[in-house]
Amino acid sequence: MIETTNLNLIEAKEEDINDIMEIENHEENRNFIWQGTYEQHLREILDKDYLLLIFKRKEDNLTVGFALNHLDYKSERFELRRIAVTVKGKGYGKEVLTALIKCTFEDLNFNKFWLDVYPDNVVGIKLYENVGLHCDGVLRQNYKSERGFLDQKVYSILRSEYKGLN
């Protein structure tokens, strides 16, 4: 478990999958993140190279989001594959992102934290830049969805950059 000021980030269990799928399909989230199937999420929970976390608010234990992370132990990279929050405007996204970056460098001792984001996810991009992530570039028309071919912007922070922030 990872603890923040307002949240507990807990490893997901099979009984959390329906909540995760509901968060993915939330009207404010679904255009910005990929939706997984029940079977895909179950495989992620069982795979040691993935860390699927749910966010529970401390005050009432309400699930307010989730993050899917891929851990590349060989290359010491932490990839944030998906993050979604259903309770907006409370700073939960920033709280979680800051905690995951800290975990990457201080607990796992990895070299890199990275993610990709669709360019129209303005709120996400503002958050990523606000916590110190660097835009590495754009993968042009990298993903085909019902919205057409979408670009993906790659953001990262390296251990040496993280040390400079603290």
Helices and strands in order, then pairings?
Elements: E1 2-3, E2 7-11, H1 17-24, H2 38-46, E3 50-57, E4 63-72, E5 77-85, H3 92-107, E6 112-117, H4 122-130, E7 134-145, E8 148-158, H5 159-165
Parallel strand pairs: 5-6
Antiparallel strand pairs: 1-2, 2-3, 3-4, 4-5, 6-8, 7-8
Describe the structure in your own words.
This protein has 166 residues and is α+β, with helices and mostly antiparallel strands. It has helices at 17-24, 38-46, 92-107, 122-130, 159-165; strands spanning 2-3, 7-11, 50-57, 63-72, 77-85, 112-117, 134-145, 148-158. An 8-stranded mixed beta sheet has the order 1-2-3-4-5-6-8-7, with helices on both faces. The longest helix is centred in the middle third of the chain and has 16 residues, at 92-107. It is globular. The mean pLDDT is 94.
Per DSSP, the total helix count is 5
What is the overall shape?
Answer: globular
Fraction in beta strands: 35-45%
Task: Pick out the low-confidence regions.
Answer: none
- Class from secondary-structure proportions: alpha+beta
Count the E strands. 8
What is the helix content? 25-40%
The value of Rg in angstroms is: 15 Å
Could you report the average pLDDT, rounded to the nearest whole number?
Answer: 94
**Largest sheet geometry:** 8 strands, mixed
Strand order of the largest sheet: 1-2-3-4-5-6-8-7
The N- and C-terminal alpha carbons lie at a distance of 23 Å
Helix/strand order: EEHHEEEHEHEEH
